[in-house]
Design goal:
This protein folds into two domains: 17-190, Cytochrome c-like domain (Cytochrome Bc1 Complex, Chain D, domain 2), CATH 1.10.760.10; 196-347, Cytochrome c-like domain (Cytochrome Bc1 Complex, Chain D, domain 2, Orthogonal Bundle). It is 28% helix and 1% strand. The chain contains ten helices and two strands, in the order αααααααβαβαα. Helix 1 runs antiparallel to helix 4. 37% of the residues are buried.
Amino acid sequence: MISIAFLFSCEDKPLPLDELDLTNIAYLPRDFNFNYPSTFGKPILPPDNPTTQAGVALGKKLFFDPILSRDSSMSCGSCHNQAIGFTDSNKFSVGVDGKPGTRSSMALVNMMFTNRGFFWDGRVKTLEEQALIPIEDPIELHSTWPDVEMKLRRSGDYQVLFRKAFGIKTKVEITRDLAVKAIAQFERTLISSNSKFDKIQAGLAKYTDLELYGLSMFLDEDPDVKDAECGHCHNLPLLTSDQFFNNGLDEAPNLTEFKDLGLGGFTKKLIDNGKFKAPTLRNILITAPYMHDSRFETIDQVLDHYSNGGKRSPNKDPLLYPLRFTPFERAALKAFLGTLTDSTFISNPAFKQ
């Protein structure tokens, strides 16, 4: 920890604390080396926020630090638990004031491959923008960025970490913009690519007969196997299309009758009402409850929904219709979904507090 004692000029007058020189701390940024399959495609890495080892270290500390909340009781990690895929098991996450939210906590995984917006409604374009919002949200961390900035500037540890990550010269340069850049850098490292599915893709393992049947249903690869219509919204290998759909959760006689407008609440386009992001299915069996409002507690309830074809509304996706899964087909789909669990992701020490 660095000293925060007053420095003195030649006239022996104390300099303001904000002018304390941090340049004696080495600033030697080193690139962070990502490890992911080439099949994942090109990551989305903003040129104004290169991912560095020091930036990731700072972002990790901020992610798990309750200093970001109004009463220093909760952190980002409070609602994004690594052991369950960086989500939580609550229907709605509860903030520092004991108030529940209105949507479920989304899993944080493979986010640097997202380019069509974050949150269930896609309201922000970047991870940096996303990280700004929970701190001041009255039903989440319910703080203010000026207060958080003040607390970070007072911390000798953070003075060092921000210097190493961004080359700041004085603590007054510790700002919300740099804080969210660091958090975004850490979140981009949360890569899941070592499930049984990934090992099979790499030629290192094989499906069981039941898992393989489930895969055929998922992708409609075999004309003799029922198409479960999953792969259209949950593309391989990331298991998401990064798109928004009305998947028939609510009945609506017209486009204005949805309880939650979803994407339409952001775009203000009627056709987008009732549409929500198709999340990745990676680690899906450990990230219950399901859907934006956590209405389904089990994966069997999810399969019931799709088996029945969902509820009517003008913009319900046309690929939703009664599929009438047999017990064997349900078992096969669940078996395949089980291959998407990545035990190394949920136990990786690099992601732990």
